[in-house]
Protein 1
Amino acid sequence: MHEASRDDVARAVAAAKSALTGPWGRMGINERVDLLFGLVDGINKRFNDFLEAECADTGKPMSLASHVDIPRGAAGFKIFADIIKNVGSGVLHDGDARRRRCDQLRAAPARTSSRSSARGTCRCC
């Protein structure tokens, strides 16, 4: 069963769209990466505060939250920063990734594989 109403979803979509025209949308890639890595640093500096809040919120034992939840939360922001840094600010979906991989294979020297010859002959397109 879902917990969000149609209005909740509509507000979330509107907020995401408005973020694209706000400061984040105008921000350069390096600034975005720096902010996200700053979040990672902030989580790590306030590790115990986050740990206490997670345990109070979920009832998890500190041993579990300190080895899984808090590090995973920080790692998520690091992953987002790495994606922005390496992929850029465009929208990425599976079709884009497959297409980009095909383009890379076709542009590579012939030694890569037989999958890399002409369009339509690789395994993904």
Note: Residues 9 and 15 are 10 Å apart (CA to CA).
Protein 2
Amino acid sequence: AETLRDRFPERASATPEIVARHFEEAGDLPLALPWFEKAARQSYANGALSESEHLVLKALECLSDPPLSVDARNDRIRLLILKGSILVDLYGYGNPLATAAFREATSLFETGSLLTEEAFYALHGFFETLYGGADLRELRRVSDSLLEMSRDRKSADFPIVALWASGSADFWEGRFETSLAKCDQCLALGETTDRSENLWSEHRRGVLVQAWSYRLWSLWFLGRYRSAKDELDRALDWVSDPQNSKKIGHLLTFALILIRFLRLPDRIFPAADTLCESIRTLKTEGWTPSEQGFRGWAMVMKGTPGGLPLVLRSVALSRRYHRLAEVTYLSLLSETYLALKAPRKAEGVADSALRFSERSGTHFFDAELWRLKGEAALLEKKREEARECFGRAIEISRRQGARALELRAATSLGRFLREDGKRKEALALMSEVSDLLEGPESIPALPDIREALELERHLS
């Protein structure tokens, strides 16, 4: 080990796990530790997640338990943060071992001590595991703490991380304009911040990809269709580059959801295939709900009922890997049942999603859930109930500034009014969303816009 380290430093740096194992066999664990850590970080950066998990556990085995010195405690904190990050990427936000790792890391800091990068990133890691729970209010509390800590500016990366954390919480709460502004600010800071390699470079890169993901969603919710589609195309080009393995599952999942929002089922299959290959290669099982659910939805939308079991499975898996996103998968299931002409099941699932939304605080999709309930009521000939649901969807979407959801709800209610002979009322309703149909962000070929334009033509 000493020969490799001292006489062949380039070879040692390229294969740190070999140096680590020689020191381990020599019985010198304190010297083995930094080499195991270096090997784990290299593997993590290269996307070899299973290997990096094994190596970080080897590094932790080199430490005494409990840590007997300040340096040993800092080593343990740093390794626990790395372990938690690897486990989240491998097994999803809901992995209990990841949560335990970040909890232990935060517990090792001395009360009243100065803010360190380790303390900040331990809290950031704990924040990420909260997506595996069902309490958006706790997620908001921790994101606010990260924002407060970032004002200390111990690191130039602190504001980048804190802005993404706060912006993501804004999105789930249904504050899309605020979410987009924070994600844009985060990405702008990422462009100007020193990009030199350091211990936390992987965290910064991962956060920037996540901020980009939330930007995809927010653009669509705000009715900026052309910008959202352009960003989607750019994201799919990015994930096709083999060098961009970091957070590929995260970005692909957001891309799949945006494709579903745009109602382009044909585009689901190649993206789902890419995600499936990524899951197989990187062993990142936490993204399985996305690959399964959206593939199943696209199959049903294309006329293949056999996609339903995949959607059902995605709901069950989301509760294990990403509980906060349960509304996403329940709405997917409700929409699938509607396409299969099973209105009672569609309505029941939408009701379950709204109850989860109320319990968890995730209100970003409430307007669409009410619209789905309205469409289900129409299929069951419950017209008065349908009108009330459409009205509720419009009210929520306007309050949140969710223009894309407002357009959908207005089109559903506009059709309803036309059938009842209330042409003027329907025209007045559609005039409220005419900017989405005629402005520079409009894409007339998209189903939502095409159907709204067709309704306008029938009304006039």
Note: The mean pLDDT is 92.
Protein 3
Amino acid sequence: MQFEYPEDREFFANLLADGDAKRLEDEFSEHFDFRHQAIKRWEFNKTKKKLLAGLILTHGGKCQLHIHPDCSKEEIWEPDHIVPLATNELNKKLRHIARVSSEKVAAQDFGSNHIKNLTLACKRCNSFKKHRLIIPRSFYRSDLEIFPHRVDNEIFTLPSGGHTLVQKYLLQFKQWEGAPVPTDYNGKAVIDWNGEPVFAELAVLRLFQSHGWNGVWVDSYRRKYRVGLPDVATPVELPEARNRVVESLRAKTGKSGGCWDVLAWKDDSILFIELKRSKKDRVQLSQTQWLKAALSSGFDSENFALVEWDLAG
């Protein structure tokens, strides 16, 4: 397969083949067609109805994306390209090409119309996806069923210049409408979690606790570990084994900060979770450095997750 840039090959190897470039060539070559998207779109429209009927038969009328809160509420089905016919995501996120004036960042042609590159999506999820690189859950080596909606992968550019993908999820929370909390940390949103006022970090922690995980909110503002609101619940200490992990990564980064918002563990599994409010927050350099330190210490990207969240309504 003739990719325009070597980092594109690396990206798709990570996305589809657990980083194995040979496996990408051997198992996924039929997902790619580098011809112009207009030609591919014309060919696709000619066979769209037939392809849709086959996909509905294969998947039993069940959306394979499941990335929007209103997934399948309207039972209108559409064929979806796993690798998009064209996308500008790699130009934006790998090469950091910026939009000039009213011109969009140029798209690259990638996906094919081969049946292996097609899956079934409900109309709402397909519209939400647009031309982003979001693949069905069945492709992922490890997916967190705790989260109802996987959005896509976040591309991290590491200080070394390499790239890695981190799983990314979408959550919506209900705003707290009860009595004010003692402190809101300079305007943090207060969320109603089953009748309990919490911050978003604690809401995610509660979600994991409800599935049998242990964990803490890493309160970097006051440098404490918490399982409840400040000024309501007393800070806690990390178990010795988990504390050793955190301290070793702090030593490796040379900084006291950078740990992701929520640290969760269950049996031998450990997960660092970073929360970003939709369209408001960005990942910080210190958090990328934390990820790099963890990857070089034997962790992999499956030990990390991003949660993009907002208030419902």
Note: The radius of gyration is 21 Å.
